[in-house]
Amino acid sequence: MSSSAIESFNNWILAARLMPIMNLVEELRSKIMIQMSRRREEASRWVSQICPDMDAKLAKRIDKGRSWRVYKSKTGLYEVKSVPAVLVNLEQGTCSCGGWQYNGFLCAHAATVLVKSCGVEGSLVGYIDPFYHVEAYRLTYQDNIHPILAMDIPDFTEGSTRVIKAPKNRRQAGRPCVKRIRSRGEEQSFARPMKCARCHKLSHHNRRTCKEATDD
Question: Are the C-beta atoms of 56 and 63 separated by less than 8 Å?
Answer without folding.
Answer: no
